[in-house]
Specification:
Layout (H helix, E strand, L loop, with lengths): L8 H20 L1 H4 L3 H6 L6 H12 L2 H14 L2 H28 L7 H8 L2 H11 L3 H19 L3 H50 L2 H11 L12 H11 L6 H9 L3 H33 L6 H12 L4 H37 L5 H21 L11 H22 L5 H21 L8 H20 L12
Helix pairs in contact: 1-10, 1-16, 4-10, 4-13, 4-14, 4-16, 5-14, 5-16, 6-12, 6-13, 6-14, 7-8, 8-16, 8-19, 9-10, 9-16, 9-17, 10-14, 10-16, 10-17, 11-14, 12-18, 14-15, 16-17, 18-19, 18-20, 19-20
Length: 480
Amino acid sequence: MSFEGLWSSIDWIVIVLYFVGILCVGVSMKKRAGKSVKSFYVASRRLTIPILIGVGAAGWYDSWTIVGLAECGWTMGLCVILVFAVPEAILRLPLATVIGPHVRDNIPDWVVTVPDLMNYLYSSKVKLISAITYIANMLYDSALLFAIAEVLKMVSGMPMVVSLIISGAVVAIYTALSGLWGLAVTDLIQFAIMTFSGGALLIGVIIKFGGFPVVWEGIEKIDPNLLTPTGGLPFWEIIAWMISACAMYCEAACYQRFGSARSGEDIKVAYSIMLSMGVTFSVAMVFAGMSSLVFFGDMTDRPSEGFWALVFSVLPVGFRGLFVAALCAAVMSTVSSDWLLFATCAVNDIWRGFVAKGMSEQKTLFGMRIAVFVFGVLTVVGTIFWADGIANAWYYLGGFLFAMFFIPIICGLFYKKKTSTAALVCIVYSACMYVLWEFILACPGDIPSSVFVSATGAILYFIVCNLTYRKSLPENAEEV
């Protein structure tokens, strides 16, 4: 399908203004972010409730929530709401109301990254393996950048590599300049754009095509199974989708946001509000995907193309550019936060923590800024893995993250018999077994990797804890 004729100069102006505005924020926040690693990574722990809502939503809801969930609406129908969107909000509520406040109020001030948290809960060895394995999440960022490049190619005809370089460069520049201070301001803007654009799309579908009854009738003609609660999915796959909804318990950017709050009470209020808004946004994107199947399914077999055909058909000039800006906003929020994390893990946690232990704050900051650009290049290269669409990006990578870190993090916070040996064994086992079960054994018995590895990894963790725990050890002591 060709979209170039639907794209106007006004839409381009909206996009250009957005990118220029983001860069201006990066420049304006450079001085505030350059004082220390803490100011760069957690904004000196001074974010207020309104900004926390913005950074939380923009960090938790990204281009996968827009394009990926729309693709799921096309391929899975109503069930993705019931097996992912709603469970996602319910299962994340304890994270927002219990885990987040606990981390902010009861963990020492020097803990600013998840590897730092693993060091505090277990040992430096667990910190090292955590810092290394978290960087694997870069593949998810590749999927997010791919979504931007794909739509820019559709509307302009420019090669995807050009749009990837442009979008990646903008993210890298303002992240390297301003750290979380810049992300906090831009996330608040991005959250407003995402919310407004999502609502405009939903209203546009209702006005142009007649709304829910028409879509339901069309879906029933195409595939009635898409209107059933499970969509015909096997039991274990449903469980796997729910597990992927819990992966945010292990997402480093999530703990970064918690650490940047003024207090645990602020986290409870901000994230409770944000969760209710988030599930509404997710449901709207699934409905948009189902609508695109009904009205454009006979024009293309690619869910992403059908989704953008819907967007450009129902939104007027200018609003189309705003919606693409919303996609850019969602991507940039998540990707910039991750690159900030990867840079911190590589330079502060690994290099400064284990190789150059005497490195100064300013040299560390400089190294982190260089690392942001390095990870930007690697993320752009990684987009080749998502040429067939990004619908399963969070399903696989979220499951991978959950399998490795959910038990070590949660049990590390609350289980009295935790040991660093158990955490190390669980993380290494889960990383290796996930790859083996998914890509070599091809999921025996049709049991998804996230389900099998999470269950067996948890059992292994508790077995090793009970074998290695010694009451005589002082708290946080490292086993020999």
